[in-house]
Structures are given as C-alpha cells and as structure tokens.
Design goal:
Arc Repressor Mutant, subunit A; three-stranded antiparallel beta sheet; disordered C terminus; 2 domains; mainly alpha; DUF4145 domain-containing protein
C-alpha cells in the first residue's frame, strides 16, 4: 500500500460516501496504475476498504453484485470478477479526484497533437507531445503553446541535422542558433525541402510559443491553439518524416559537437530568437 493510496483513503473517509461509491473510487484510483489498468478484483477492493478503515465486515458477494449493476463500471480485462471504470465515466472521476492524479500515469488525450503521428519512440519527443496535450486538456494553454513550439523546434533541428547540414545551424561559439535563424535556414530550401505552407505554420507556432513564454500581457487561449490545426499536425508529421526520428549517419563530420548538443539541456526560449 502506498502513501498516495493512504492519502486518497483519508480523503474518501471525509466524504460520507456509500460503500458502493467508495468501492468505485478505489477502482478508479487503483486502475490508474498501468499494471492494474485491466481491472481490479472485489477481494482487492475489500482489502483496501478494510486496511484503511473505510469499511468493515464487507459482504463481497453483495458488493460484486452492486458493481455489476452500476453504470460507471465495466468488467475488467484481467478475468472474471474484475472491474474498471467505464470510459465515458473516467473523465468525471478524473476531474472529481484531480488532486490525486499521478502526472506520470494521468490519462492524456491527443486532441491537439495526434498520437498517431510517429515520433520514432523517442522518449523526449513523446514526453513533450504528452505535456502539450496534457496542458491543453487541463486548460494550461500557455504551457501547451510553449511545448508545441519546443516540439516543432526540436523536429526542425533534427531534420536539418539528418540532411547533413548541422554546420548551417551552429554559430561561432559552437552553439545551436536561435529558432528564428533555424527557420530562416529551412525556408531557404537549400538544405531541406518543406511543403509550401509549412514555413508559415512554423512561424505561427513560434509566434504563439514566444508570446506565451515572454509577452508581458498576452495569455494563450484555447482558440489560439485550436487555430494552429490542422497545420500543426501537418508540420509535425512532415518534420518527423524528414528526420525519420533516427540518429544522423556516421559519416557526418561534427559528430562530437552533435552529441554534445543532444546531451545538454535545451536552452531557454528567447523572444528575439
């Protein structure tokens, strides 16, 4: 049993819920764990309710019957007698118990950037997409805009590197140039070939991301982000395909500098870049 579960049980004990409601809440909490996402059994639920002194002398058979008749739960995929939250009810419980969500396991939609766009299983790129989508879901639109900007910038850099032109985006101090300069390199069509509308969309993503990060008065709205699509999805799809989400070929000359660039943290965003 974890401290998070203990805190959640303590919260439930203050809510004056019925036995069934407490059981459903426990199902919701336990199935946030990827290892238990397929469902939890009534004995597991009874154990938690008893261990944290929420209920005693629970009739497991009666509780199982009540769960089967409740519209907020469905049968689990881990075998007979297991339960999980119905998909249509999951968001309701997530909002109700938002304070107890583990950010690492919280369910995130792909309403802004589709998960169907392959990023080559690159963990850092997948995490940035997740943060962009998660921030969008929760209404943290400034954060979402900054993550969109960062994802597009990283993909554009990788596309240019993959094409063998790292030197074009390195300054005199062997640092990666600002996003604005990198966009200029891409727009020249000398080093990578972009679709006709892609540069304008990249500029728009940069403008919104810069404003979200640095503007004194601007606040990003849902409408601002919605208006980026379908262009944003097109750009991410195109750049991901150009750089194929893979390491640059071994024959590239400045391999040591490239590795150093990839290891260091991405620099802070600057409005004038």
């Amino acid at each position: 049993m974890t401290q998070q579960l203990a805190d959640f049980a303590a919260f439930l004990s203050e809510q004056k819920l019925t036995e069934l409601d407490e059981a459903i809440a426990i199902i919701w909490f336990l199935t946030r764990d990827p290892e238990q996402a397929g469902g939890v059994s009534v004995p597991q639920i009874v154990e938690v309710l008893g261990a944290y002194r929420l209920r005693s002398n629970i009739n497991a058979s009666r509780l199982s019957m009540k769960l089967r008749g409740n519209t907020n739960v469905v049968a689990g995929s881990k075998g007979r007698g297991t339960f999980r939250i119905r998909a249509s009810s999951d968001r309701v419980y997530a909002e109700k118990f938002a304070d107890f969500l583990d950010p690492r396991t919280a369910k995130v939609s792909d309403n802004l950037i589709s998960n169907e766009i392959s990023l080559g299983a690159r963990r850092h790129l997948e995490q940035i997409r997740r943060e962009a989508n998660g921030s969008y879901d929760r209404g943290f639109y400034n954060g979402s805009a900054v993550m969109c900007r960062r994802l597009v910038e990283l993909l554009l850099v990788e596309a240019i590197v993959k094409a063998g032109h790292l030197a074009q985006i390195i300054d005199s101090k062997n640092e990666i140039k600002g996003f604005g300069d990198i966009i200029g390199v891409a727009k020249s069509n000398q080093y990578i070939r972009l679709s006709r509308t892609t540069p304008a969309t990249i500029e728009k993503v940069k403008t919104i991301g810069d404003a979200a990060a640095h503007h004194r008065y601007y606040t990003t709205t849902k409408k601002d982000l919605d208006e980026l699509n379908p262009g944003l999805r097109h750009v991410i799809t195109e750049l991901a395909a150009l750089q194929a989400c893979s390491a640059p070929p071994a024959h590239l000359g400045r391999r040591a500098r490239l590795c150093r660039y990839r290891r260091r943290l991405w620099p802070p965003l600057h409005e004038d870049q």
